[in-house]
Amino acid sequence: MGTIVVPDQQSNLSKKQQVENMFDAIAERYDFLNRLLSFRIDVLWRNKVIKMLAPAKPKYILDVATGTADLAIALQKLNPDKVIGLDLSANMLAIGQTKIKAKQLQNNIELVKGDSENLPFDTNTFDAVTVAFGVRNFENLGSGLQEIYRVLKPEGQFVILEFSKVKTFPIKQFYHLYFRYITPAIGKLFNKNSEAYTYLPNSVEVFPEGDEMCVILQSAGFKNTICKPLSFGIASIYYAIK
C-alpha cells in the first residue's frame, strides 16, 4: 500500500506519534496556511464532498482526521442530526472547537480525540464517513479503512478527499515546482515546524491514487468505488459504499 513516509525520518517515534506531534505544533497557523497555499481552492473541494453526499441525506456523519473541523462545519449544509469529528491532535481540535462555538454549532458537532485505526464507536453506527486530506497520515491504511467500514451502516457512504499527482503538461511541472519547493518555503516562513510542509509533498508522492486506491477500497470491503480527479488532478475524491 505504498512506502511509509514520516515527518521526521530521524525520529524513533511511530508515524502516528509523529503526525500527532506535527499537527499539534502547526495547529495555530494551520488554517491560515491552508488558505494561503491552496488559494482557497480547498474550500471548493470540500463543497464537492458535500454535493456528493447530498442525495442520500445522511443524518449521522463521522469526519475522520477532522483537524480544525473545516469539513465537519461544512457538512452542516446537509442538515444532519449530528456530525462527529475525530482527530489525533488535541491542538487542532481545540481550534476547531473555537470555530464551532463561534458559529454556535455545539449541539450539532462533537469533536473527539481518537485514533482512526481504533475508532471508539459501535459497528454500523454512521450513515456516512468522510476524510479530507487525512488518509495519507494513517499509519496503517488498511486498518484505518477497515475501521471506517466497520462503523458505517450497511449501504453507508464513504468519501475521501485527498491530494493526488498531476499528470498533465504543463500543469504537472508547475505543480511539482510549487508543491516541492515553494510550499515548504512558505510553510517555513510562517511556521517553525517546516518539516510539516516537506512531509506534505513527500507523502503525496508515494501515496496510492486513482485506480490503485479504488482497488484498496474494494479490498477493505467497499463497493461501487469511484475516483473523480479535481483541478487537473491536484486532488481526487473517492466515493464508495459499504
Describe the structure.
- This protein has eight helices and seven strands.
- It is α/β, with parallel strands linked by helices and 242 residues long.
- It has one domain (15-164, 207-241): Vaccinia Virus protein VP39 (Rossmann fold), CATH 3.40.50.
- It has a seven-stranded mixed beta sheet, sandwiched between helices.
- 38% of the residues are buried.
Question: Which characteristics define this entry?
Answer:
alpha/beta; Rossmann fold; seven-stranded mixed beta sheet; 8 helices
Low-confidence segments: none
Order of helices and strands: HHEHEHEEHEHHHEE
**Structural class by helix and strand composition:** alpha/beta
Total strands: the figure is: 7
Nearest-integer average pLDDT: 91
Quaternary structure: single chain
Overall tally of domains: 1
* Helical segment count: 8
Please describe the biggest sheet, giving its number of strands, its sense, and whether it closes into a barrel: 7 strands, mixed
CATH topology: Rossmann fold
Beta percentage is 15-25%
CATH architecture: 3-Layer(aba) Sandwich
Characterize the overall form.
globular
Q: Give the class-level CATH name.
A: Alpha Beta
* Residues in helices, as a percent range: 40-55%
Q: Any idea what the CATH superfamily is called?
A: Vaccinia Virus protein VP39
Computed over alpha carbons, the radius of gyration is: 17 Å
First and last CA, distance: 21 Å
Break the fold down into its secondary structure elements and pairings:
Blueprint: H1 15-38, H2 41-53, E1 60-64, H3 70-74, E2 82-87, H4 90-102, E3 109-113, E4 126-132, H5 141-151, E5 152-163, H6 171-190, H7 195-206, H8 210-219, E6 223-230, E7 235-241
